[in-house]
Amino acid sequence: MKNAAIIGVGAMGLRHLIAYKNIPEINIVAVCDINQESLNKIKKENPKINIYTNFKNMLEKEKIDIVSVATLGPTHAEIVIELANNKIPYIFCEKPMATSVKDAEQMIQVCKTNNSKIAINHVKRFMPSYLKVKELIQQNKIGKISSILAFQGGGRLGSMGTHMIDLFNFLYGKTPKSIAGKIDKNYTGDHKKRDVVDPGGFLTLDYGEGQKAHLDVSENLGIPGLVIIVGSVGRMIVDEKKGIRVESRSEEDFEKRLGEYNLPLSNIEDYETPREFVETITERHIKKLLSDEDYCTAEEGLRAVEVILATHISSIKNTKVNLPLNDKEFEVRIT
To answer: 204-226, pLDDT tens digit by residue?
Structure first.
């Protein structure tokens, strides 16, 4: 039995609470938040859970094996570093991992020094639809992937877009070499009036070998995730609320010249994938961290943050930005 605690019990922190409750090997001992009203509500519904308004006090008084960090992005580095220095064995941090490359690298180093395993909760790579897509790519269903196009409603490039960026890296199995992007000028401030800056935007990533990805998380989009994956001889369309459609050339046309672009996509397969709640996907990710099995690492979390920051730089300078990002000090208070 492992003891768990949660720092930050807003909307996402409550999902972590549900996820932990569904894991028999976990005992939730404490939660921490600056909002006393939220803490009182949790205490009323869960009398055995101790509540704190200061996470350092919680660490002094509780014996904890795994801690979820579900606060806003600008606070992640300080909290994770403190957890690692307190020898917490497992740290489960919400995305975005940090708000600068410098902070993210420090988090990684301190966790390594203190033997704390840390996962960043990028959930799309654990969704049934994208696990199926990854399987179909590995089966060469549509040939070599050349382009991925994704739309995500809700704005907030740092909060929402980071999921898609991690998904691109997951599907390609590598990280981009450069990025060109623009921050959406229609941004009017945080939708909850919090002390953060997280506008929408759109960008193009170059993965080398003719492979690229395009992401639109503009302020005027209000749709569920939609991803189109284009290969040399076919395509996949992923509607996160409906499932996957795969269209490809017939087998006899697979080896024909790619320039014969008018060949019909006659192989059509539809896959219905389970629609899971974020709590269920988060539960799966926590289990992977505890079993040291294919969780989203801090290094992978850093790569996603890097793209968000590079998009801001690209927009400011109106130029392509090479990756990894050289400016480790550049910071944006993304959520």
So the answer is: 999 999 999 999 999 998 888 89
